[in-house]
Amino acid sequence: QVQLVESGGGLVQAGGSLRLSCAASGRTSSIYAMGWFRQAPGKEREFVALIIWKGGITYYADSAKGRFTISRENAKNTVYLEMSSLKSEDTAVYYCSAALPSASSWFPKTPRDYDYWGQGTQVTVSS
C-alpha cells in the first residue's frame, strides 16, 4: 500500500500564489510517477501535472503551463505543486496520485493510470 496525504490548500485571492504538498508513505519504492489532478463540483477529475520520480521529468496540462510548477524532494518522499497567478477557474479539490511501473503510458495523464490517491485538499480562489 501507498498512502498519500495532501496539504497546503486554502483560500487565496485571484492573482495570488499557493504551494501544495503531498507526502507519500508505505511502499514508496514502487512509485513510478506522481501526479496532481483537480476536480470542481459537478465536473470530471482533470489532470494538472505529473513528475517521473526517477529523473524528475515533468509534464503539464495546458491550463497549468507557465503558472504551475511540480517538483519533488526525494529524501522526504514528497511532491509539491507551486501555483501562481491563480484564477477563479483554478478553484477545485486538488488530489495527489501515484502510478506504479505498470502504468499504460510513459507519461500517465489520465486517472486510470494511477493506483493510489490522496484525500484531496480544497483550493478556493476568490475574484
Supply database-style keywords:
four-stranded antiparallel sheet; single chain; 127 residues; mainly beta
Draw up the topology in text.
Blueprint: E1 2-7, E2 10-13, E3 18-26, E4 33-39, E5 46-52, E6 58-60, E7 68-73, E8 78-83, E9 92-99, E10 116-117, E11 121-126
Parallel strand pairs: 2-11
Antiparallel strand pairs: 1-3, 3-8, 4-5, 4-9, 5-6, 7-8, 9-10, 9-11
What's the story with the biggest beta sheet?
7 strands, mixed
Oligomer: single chain
Q: Percent of residues in beta strands?
A: over 45%
Q: Terminal Cα separation, in Å?
A: 40 Å
Derived structural class: mainly beta
Radius of gyration equals 14 Å
Residue-averaged pLDDT: 95
Number of helices: 0
Shape summary: globular
Task: Point out poorly predicted stretches.
Answer: none
Residue share in helix: under 10%
Order of helices and strands: EEEEEEEEEEE
Total strand segments = 11
Write a structural description:
The structure is a single chain. The protein has 127 residues and is mainly beta. The protein is built from no helices and eleven strands. It has strands spanning 2-7, 10-13, 18-26, 33-39, 46-52, 58-60, 68-73, 78-83, 92-99, 116-117, 121-126. The chain is globular, with a radius of gyration of 14 Å. The chain starts with a strand and ends with a strand. 32% of the residues are buried.
Summarize the structure.
With 127 residues, the chain is an all-beta fold.
